[in-house]
Amino acid sequence: MSRSLKKGPYVDEKLYRKVERQNEDGERSPIKTWARQCLIVPEFVGHTFKVHNGRVFLDVFVTEDMVGHKLGEFSNSRTFRGHTNKKEGIKTGK
Amino acid sequence: MPRIAGIDVPDRKKIYYALQYVHGVGPKFAKDILDEAGIDPDRRANELTESDISRINGIIDNGFLVEGALRRQVQQNIGRLREIRCYRGDRHRSGLPVRGQRTKCNARTRKGRKKTVAGKKGIKG
Fold first, then answer.
1. Which of B80, B86, B90, B91 to mutate to test binding with chain A, by most A CBs within 10 Å of its CB?
2. Could you say which of B83, B118, B119 has the minimum Cβ distance to residue A65?
3. Stretch B7-28: mean pLDDT, rounded?
4. What sign results for the dihedral spanned by CA atoms B29, B31, B32, B37?
5. CA neighbours within 13 Å on the CB side: how many for B93?
6. Starting at the edge strand that comes first in sequence, how are the strands of the sheet with A31-33 ordered?
7. A91 touches chain B (CB under 8 A)
8. Is B8 helix (H, G, I), strand (E, B) or coil?
9. What gap in Å lies between CA A53 and CA A25, rounded to an integer?
10. 0.80 exceeded by the pTM?
């Protein structure tokens, strides 16, 4: 279900402040964050985030097309290595 | 046979239903179009005059995305999701359901015909 319009978009405040500070300084260093549920707003474009996926931080470089999505959508939290091969009985693939 | 929005040729049905043979026109848009054109929805498609049909075509051309243009738009939206490497794009790429449905069973529309795996039920692990 989509979020109520009354509430407006959810943007992690701390993260937003960090981005704003970088925008003022013209600095572009990756920002580590756990805020996967944070919406990507236009101010984020051109920044790199390190988005936690439960195990590691994955680099997400935000482009214009990504506005309106959540940070977590770009940091996959599942590992799929393929299905079990019956003969060998072990996981195949990477 | 009336030609509406390019290739489509529905006939003998009420125009309200005939219009819905156009990709991108359902009950709602069919009604909207006929209201705007001032045509009785119960009239048969083959009873319409040339001017009725050209009026319908004019309305569709201005303001309704149908057929090829609509399909292209949909493909573009999917292409965008794929390109930005988001979760939904990944699901499109791997041909699995995109909206969080279960995949343990069912999901055959996305996954295609069942692929039988020998011995899947007997031996575990």
1. B86
2. B83
3. 87
4. positive
5. 12
6. A31-33, A48-52, A57-61
7. no
8. strand
9. 28
10. no
